[in-house]
Amino acid sequence: METRPDLYYSEEHEWVRVEGDLAYIGITDYAQDSLGSVVYVELPSPGARIKKGDVLGVVESVKAASDIFSPVSGEIVEVNEELNDAPELINEDPYENHIAVIKMEDTTELENLMNHTEYEEFIEKEEV
Amino acid sequence: MNKRTPLYETQKSLGAKFISFGGWELPVSYSDILKEHHAVRNNAGLFDVSHMGMIFVTGRDSLKFVDNLVTNDISSAPCYKAVYCPMCYENGTVVDDVLVYKISDTRLFIVANASNTEKDFKWISSHIFGDVKVEDLTSDYVLLALQGPKSGDIIRKLTDDNDLPGFFRFKETTISGMNVILSRTGYTGEDGFELYLNIKENGSDPVKLWNDILNAGKDEGLLPAGLGARDTLRLEAALPLYGHELSEEITPLEAGLDRFVKFNKENFIGKKALVQQAENFKVQEDLKRKIYGFEMLDRGIPRNGYEVLKHGETIGYVTSGGPLPTLNINGGLALLEGEDLNFGDEVEIRVRNRDLKAKIVEIPFYKRSVKK
């Protein structure tokens, strides 16, 4: 399962890429692989405020709907509209296809997330 | 602890992802549900369905006994025919929907849903009369389902038998050197076969049978397929799934299965209740609930249990829903009441507090074109 060194990871299998005070959020390779074919992504509304742990969106595979939890708090400044017509992009390249961008109000929240080696260990434990 | 079929290790080495279903640990998919779905529609797919229950009924009074248990007509069916049947309680709701295989008047077997096998066995056993023996032989059998338009070509590579059974017929024959019951049945809406292998019999090797079929189908585009594709395929064909379109609270008439309920039969368990419901249907159809098909108009995916509304009022719930990959739409089946709904009528499906537009459509969503 691919991970990338430049990202933060949550226990709910979201990744965060930080650019200044912006957090790009998507789901990990491990997450897309366990879900299987993604057939729909419910995106949040731009402009909305969201707290860490709130439901940011929903990723639906053929079998089930899975919530995406926001790993940080802030304002949703952008959503990836491309996923409306091509949800399969999540499967094809999970790290290049974010779901939303959040303008963070507290960057110290990032400290609670994992780096890529910690996340690799974390999913290894999940496998057992 | 979940049960595993004799093919578990083989499937694991093929990269299968497993889920728990009806007390069994079964592959949900090997590669990708959609890929497996399309393989079955265009070429073929191989499913391990050994979790299905195998209940054998033998003895002099077997035919009369089984005929009394189910709503369809077993007595007038020829031998070596598989008959799809709801099996009902006295109140007309459904114990299970089963396939009855009539080998002879004194030997039949009933193929039950995995999650119902134990319940069915108890129910069936509690109604025994005359010279009848009932046995649950589920663990003696491996069941493989080869489904899809290329199924016939693949089976022919594995047998010298030139006389393959016709639709809903079965026979005892040799496939890949093993004695099997070969049945022209399935749960996908495609042509296909189900193979019943008694693993206790000399020469039976389920792993070899599985591998031989996969190899024979390599050039035909055959893929191993899991429960995920099985569910999307059966949903497109609008085949009911127990616990969804059928249950202890739903009758076969409500599920739209009236053609499998034979009121001209002298008797069967549940007949009285179903006769009464059928009569009420004619007089006050609009008061009754029924399974309808629907297609999403708005973006969104309907799932089992979601509320269905019309003009803001709840009229029922989704029994099965999801993507219908062959048609490239989202839709499903719903148990609806309150109004006489027509094809084309708009309803709303409540998806996570949002009411999304859908319309009532004819079922099945998908019907295979019959080979010329």
Q: What is the CATH architecture descriptor of the domain at 8-49 and 139-236 in chain B?
A: 2-Layer Sandwich
Based on CA atoms alone, the radius of gyration of chain B comes out at 21 Å
- The CATH architecture assignment of chain A turns out to be Beta Barrel
As a percent range, the share of helical residues of chain A equals 10-25%
CATH H-level name of the domain at 8-49 and 139-236 in chain B... which superfamily?
A: Probable tRNA modification gtpase trme, domain 1
Derived from helix and strand composition plus strand pairing, the structural class of chain B reads alpha+beta
Chain-averaged pLDDT of chain B: 95
CATH T-level topology of the domain at 8-49 and 139-236 in chain B: Gyrase A, domain 2
Shape of chain B: globular
Number of helices of chain B: 8
**Total tally of structural domains of chain A:** 1
Strand content of chain A: 25-35%
How many strands, which pairing sense, and closed or not: the largest β-sheet of chain A? 6 strands, antiparallel
> CATH homologous superfamily of chain A, by name?
RNA polymerase II/Efflux pump adaptor protein, barrel-sandwich hybrid domain
